[in-house]
Amino acid sequence: MPVHTRIATTTPPLWRLIPQLREQLGISQVTLARLLTETSGNPAVTRAEISRWERGKRIPGPYWRAWLSQVLDVSQDRLETAARSARNVRRSAGEPIPELAPYRRDG
User: Fold this and answer.
1) 3-103, what's its fold?
2) Where is the signal peptide (predicted)?
3) Whole-number Å distance between alpha carbons of 53 and 40
4) Of 15, 51, 21, whose CA–CA distance to 33 is shortest?
5) Please, which residues have CB within 8 angstroms of residue 64's CB and are 6 or more apart in sequence?
6) If pLDDT is split at 50, 70 and 90, which confidence band does 95 have?
7) How deeply is 51 buried, as exposed, middle or buried, from its count of CB atoms within 10 A (0-12, 13-18, 19+)?
8) DSSP helix/strand/coil, 82
9) Longest dimension (CA), the chain
10) Which alpha helices (DSSP H) does 26-94 contain, by range?
11) What b/e readout covers 55-90, taking b as 16+ CB neighbours within 10 angstroms?
């Protein structure tokens, strides 16, 4: 089995991990965006961006993953692995992400 497949099957992609951790904390996307803004001092992240991350439309970059680590109380290594997993799933499946197809407006 190729390494990228092994990573994708053993580590949830970031679009699964972020809502899982957020829901464990009992917070909404709006609250997560507010906490990221307060913690980072950067008002650039919004609920809409959180939604894009959770739908697999975008993968947060290293800057936001560092802040997500603090706010969601998860190691940066786990978020990095989940980001790699998300990229590998995208590469192997092509766009759009098949498991997200039911949520697409045109799918």
Assistant:
1) 434 Repressor (Amino-terminal Domain) (1.10.260)
2) none
3) 18
4) 51
5) 36, 40, 45
6) low
7) middle
8) helix
9) 43
10) 29-40, 47-54, 62-72, 76-93
11) ebeebbeeebbebbbebbebeeebbbbbbbbbbbbb
Q: Can you tell me the distance from the alpha carbon of 58 to that of 102, in angstroms, rounded to the nearest whole number?
A: 17
Q: Look up the pTM and report it.
A: 0.77
**Token code pair at residue 74:** 């998860």
CA neighbor of 32 nearest in space, from 42, 18, 12: 18
**Tokens in use for 72?**
């969601």
Round to whole Å and give the CA distance between 89 and 47.
24
- Sorted by where each begins, the domain ranges of the chain are 3-103
